[in-house]
Structures are given as C-alpha cells and as structure tokens.
Design a protein that fits this description.
Blueprint (H helix, E strand, L loop, with lengths): L15 E4 L1 H4 L5 H13 L2 H4 L3 E3 L25 H11 L3 E7 L15 H11 L3 E5 L8 H13 L6 E5 L16 E3 L8 H11 L11 E3 L12 H13 L4 E3 L8 H7 L2 H7 L8 E6 L2 E7 L5 E7 L5 E6 L11 E5 L4 E2 L6 E6 L3 E9 L1
Parallel strand pairs: 1-2, 1-8, 2-3, 3-4, 4-5, 5-6, 6-7
Antiparallel strand pairs: 9-10, 10-11, 11-16, 12-15, 13-14, 13-16
The protein binds beta-D-galactopyranose.
Beta-D-galactopyranose binds next to loops.
C-alpha cells in the first residue's frame, strides 16, 4: 500500500460486477436488479469473480422524505433498498448504488450536495457495498474537496463501501483521487461502438503509474455484448480493459446474453490477468494508426502483452524481446490467453497474426 492511499483493504484488485446504466439507462427496478443478480449466479459470472450488482441513475423518488433521507421510487422499488440488498447478499453478491455530488443527478433526480454524511449512513443502513458518485450539476464546486468530504462520509458510515468517483477525468483525478476513493473515471461516457472504445483506450496511455491495489483508473464500464460490436471487438475491448487493470463492470443484459458474450466476460485467463495481485496497469509501448502494443508486468515476473489490430485488414504484429526490455538471449514461454494454450515455435521474438478489430493477448514467462 503506497503512502497516502486508502488502507481499508477494499478493492485490492479491480472491482468486478455489473452496472445497469450502459444497457438499461434509467429503466431500473427491483425486478431487474434481482433477476440480474440471479443471472450472475446461473451464468457463472459470480463464480468467475463478478461481485457487485450496481444500480445506476434512476432509482430515487423525486423528493427526499421529511427527515431529508433519500427515498427509492416506490413504483420501482416497492420493498425498499434494504430488501434488494438482502436478496442480492443471499446470492453471495454485493449491492452497489449511485448518487451524484451536485444538486441533481444527470437524470434530474435528487442528488447529494449537502447530504453527504446522511446519504453515506443511509446507504450503509440499507446494506450497500459499493457507491458511485457522479458529477452532474456541480457548477462552481471543486471535485477534490467535495470527493474528500465523501471520503470522510464513507469512513464514518459504519460499513465498508467501495467508493467509485465519476468525475469523467476532467480535473485529472488520477493525481488526487487515489487517496479518497477506490476507482475514478478517466474519461467521458463510453458508447457501444468501436470508435468510442478505441478513443477511450487511447486516453489511458500514460495513466499506469497512478493505479495499484485499492486505487484504480476507470476507463468506464464494459460495453461487451452491447450495440453492434462484433465478437472480435467485444473480446478486444475486454482484453484491453483486462490489461489496464480496469474495473470490470459488465454493462449488458446478463439475463439474456449469447454464449459468446458470456464466454468473453468469463474467460478465465483474461479475468486472472485483470485480477493479477500486483495490480500494475499496462503501458503502451507502440502506437500507430493500424495498431497498438500494450505490456503489463505480472506477479512472479511474467509479462502480459496485447497486440491490438486497429485496422480493417488482418496483419502480423511483431514485437522483439528488446522492446520488452528483455535481454536478446532470454528464452521465453508464450501462452495465448484467449486460446488457453501455449504457443509453439520461436522463442526469441513475439508475433501473432491478428484479425482486424481484434486483440491477441500473450503471457510471457522467462525461463
Ligand atoms: C454520467 C455517468 C454515467 C451514468 C450517467 C447516469 O455522468 O458518466 O456512467 O452514471 O451519468 O445519468
């Protein structure tokens, strides 16, 4: 644990879970949340490591109660949030919820400005395990000071809760948010299309020094399985988020996902890469209009390398051992994490034939 970081033991590896926003937007209710939690169990996502079921914007009633407490919209959450938390907990999962630091949420619902301590205690009393705090309607407010207030509110709330800072990267939260929260958004909202994913990826270059156990850069929630993304694009998106030690918050309809989407989200060697205990984020070592090479240091001295083809035709991507700062005479073993198989052949360089809009991920062990 670095100096000045949170030392509450939460999010030692990047948080994993599901969030309602990317697919359902404000259409959240008790049934969706419970059915999703059940589907996380039956699909194998829970056992693959997904833990938090997060209700994003849209859950609150238009008015607080007479004590000033948040009220879940009764037509959507008729039995209240403690009930939802209980159902989610009974499945071995955690419940996450959303609020906003300003005067209103992005959807125009009540938000938390001036109610930080009350709301943190309220969430704790419901049994909430994860809170995302958004940044809409915050004119004139300083994110660093206001998120510091939230950090104190969580410390005094009486229940450990993962704190997700959602300021979209404007005030360079990577420079200050690691002492306050467990993850912080680094960019604007992701969209379910390839150009959004690659634009966000591009913005992560250079942020690797700021991430580590308990404090993570958040390039936004996953769009795997959403929009018109192809199977290769879904896998490339997931692979790069795994490389980045990004929080893995699925954003699709877990209750009705095709097999290839489920297999992507639960790919064991990619999830293990994301959750590597050393918690080092990948850095980009090569970039041009046709492709990227990203490298991540893993526990035990292994390396992970992602060869990303951004172009529209298949091509060979080649990396010399010297590009990986390995001595030329080093002998390496290479494993393809999507294929879950060792790669035979030459051991003095790394190369792969990579389909368009696709990423090959290799784990490299020295011996
Ligand atoms: C945005 C945020 C999204 C989602 C949305 C809800 O500010 O970046 O992830 O939470 O608000 O209205």
């Amino acid at each position: 644990m670095g100096i000045g970081r949170l030392s509450d033991g939460l999010a030692r590896t990047p948080p994993m879970g599901w969030n309602s926003w990317n697919f359902f937007k404000g259409n959240v209710d008790e049934r969706l949340v419970i059915e999703t939690a059940e589907a996380m169990v039956s699909s194998g996502m829970r056992d693959a490591g997904y833990r938090y079921v997060v209700i994003d914007d849209g859950w609150m009633a238009p008015e607080r109660d007479r004590f000033g407490d948040f009220v879940p919209e009764p037509s959507r959450f008729p039995r209240g949030m403690a009930y939802v938390a209980e159902r989610v907990h009974a499945l071995g999962l955690g419940l996450g919820i959303y609020t906003d630091a300003g005067t209103m949420t992005c959807m125009g619902l009540p938000a938390s400005l001036g109610y930080e301590f009350r709301d943190a205690r309220r969430f704790a009393s419901w049994g909430v395990d994860y809170v995302k705090v958004d940044w809409c309607h915050t004119d004139g407010l300083g994110p660093r000071a206001l998120y510091a207030k939230w950090a104190s509110a969580f410390q005094g709330a009486g229940r450990p809760m993962v704190f997700s800072i959602c300021e979209w990267g404007r005030a360079h939260p990577w420079e200050w948010a690691g002492t306050l929260g467990h993850l912080w958004r680094t960019t604007w909202d992701i969209q379910p299309d390839w150009s959004s994913i690659t634009a966000i990826l591009d913005r992560q270059s250079g942020l690797h020094p700021y991430a580590g156990p308990g404090h993570w850069n958040d390039p936004d929630m996953l769009e795997v399985g959403n929009g018109q993304l192809t199977a290769d694009e879904n896998r490339a998106h997931f692979a790069l988020w795994a490389m980045l030690a990004a929080p893995l918050m699925a954003g699709n309809d877990i209750r009705a996902m095709p097999t290839d989407v489920r297999e992507t989200l639960t790919a064991p060697e990619l999830v293990a890469l994301n959750q590597d205990p050393v918690g080092k984020q990948a850095r980009r070592i090569r970039h041009d209009e046709t492709g990227d090479v990203w490298v991540r240091e893993l526990a035990g001295g292994d390396l992970a390398i992602a060869l990303l083809n951004l172009g529209d035709v298949a091509r060979e991507i080649h990396v010399g051992l010297e590009d990986l700062a390995l001595a030329p005479e080093t002998r390496v073993r290479i494993r393809d994490l999507w294929q879950r198989a060792d790669v035979p052949g030459s051991r003095d360089d790394v190369s792969a034939h990579v389909r368009p809009h696709s990423a090959t991920v290799l784990r490299i062990a020295r011996y």
